[in-house]
């Protein structure tokens, strides 16, 4: 049976594959396979995965400049001086009247234009009324999206925009790839060939050699309901002598698509059972965010040893539709 890679530090190579399978190179070391045996529950699986949805009825396909007769200078007035995205309602200004978007405002201590104070918060109702009359280009217009939308519809569209770039979802790897949602699975199949894909909504994820020192990742794919899910088990040393395991399921899809599914992780053995149920995270969020928010199955080495068999840990994974 193959063993996963051990990098000796957070961000080590990932191991995924069939028992006795091929090697997979990761950052900090050679990654071998973390194997799994699958048990199908009868549902047919597909190779397709969601990439977005149709644009809202009120969206219009236009060049980023805006509607005919609408000067581009008008939407330019709403440009955030920090991130260059648009300042949309609710619109707040500094005491001198300068605007900054709400996302950037939370990270700033003073106005980026005049260096004046941002508090107390002052609402600019006039600019909000003007914003309600304008269509704004999608934030991915530079990637090819030609839609312009009302500000209230812009966030929902950008969540599923087919031009939205995604990064490689593999944890701990040094892969710098980014591209469209449709290109994620082809990338994984080409650049990370040692990652095993199992079919069906009920499978067993077998992480081998869990006693390896340092930070280790075990990764595999699960295909069901015409979507692909990434299963990740990550071991980290939070402080010297205390290691923790984090297990999570990610959807190769958008956050909105992830809301249609639920997953269950179960450790079972020696007359004990430990279960975690949750909504899968989108790969847009990534494993790090799930671990940071403890939105995953978390257990330490003592618990892992209660369920392990000769250093190998089997996790039952079930995907269901909501």
In terms of quaternary structure, the protein is single chain
- Flag low-confidence runs: 5-69
User: CATH-wise, what's the superfamily of the domain at 194-321?
Assistant: Apoptosis, Tumor Necrosis Factor Receptor Associated Protein 2, Chain A
Shape: elongated
Provide the CATH architecture of the domain at 194-321: Sandwich
The largest β sheet comes out as: 7 strands, mixed
State the CATH topology of the domain at 194-321: Apoptosis, Tumor Necrosis Factor Receptor Associated Protein 2, Chain A
Structural class: alpha+beta
Query: Distance between termini?
Result: 36 Å
**Count of separate DSSP helical elements:** 8
Helix content: 10-25%
Average pLDDT confidence is 80
Into which percentage range does the β-strand content fall? Answer: 25-35%
Domain RING-type: 80-115
GO biological process, one term: rhythmic process
GO cellular component, one term: cytoplasm
Protein name: E3 ubiquitin-protein ligase
Question: Would you give an account of this structure?
Answer:
The protein is an alpha+beta fold and 322 residues long. Among the domains are: 72-133, Herpes Virus-1 (2-Layer Sandwich); 194-321, Sandwich (Apoptosis, Tumor Necrosis Factor Receptor Associated Protein 2, Chain A), CATH 2.60.210.10. Helices cover 15% and strands 31% of the residues. The chain is built from 8 helices and 21 strands. The chain has helices at residues 72-76, 102-105, 125-131, 154-160, 184-191, 255-258, 286-292, 301-307; strands spanning 14-15, 24-26, 29-31, 36-38, 60-61, 92-93, 122-123, 135-137, 147-150, 166-167, 178-179, 197-199, 202-207, 216-224, 227-239, 242-251, 261-269, 272-278, 281-282, 297-300, 313-321. The strands form 6 sheets. Strands 1, 12, 14, 15, 16, 19 and 20 form a 7-stranded mixed beta sheet that branches. Strands 4-13-21-17-18 form a 5-stranded antiparallel beta sheet. The chain has a 3-stranded antiparallel beta sheet with strand order 5-9-8, with no helix packed on it. Strand 2 (24-26) and strand 3 form a beta hairpin. The radius of gyration is 23 Å and the shape is elongated. The two termini are 36 Å apart. 36% of the residues are buried. The model is unreliable at 5-69 (pLDDT under 50). GO terms for molecular function: ubiquitin conjugating enzyme binding; ubiquitin protein ligase activity; zinc ion binding. Pathway: Protein modification; protein ubiquitination. It is an enzyme of class 2 (transferase). Residues 80-115 form the RING-type domain. Residues 9-29 have a biased composition (Gly residues).
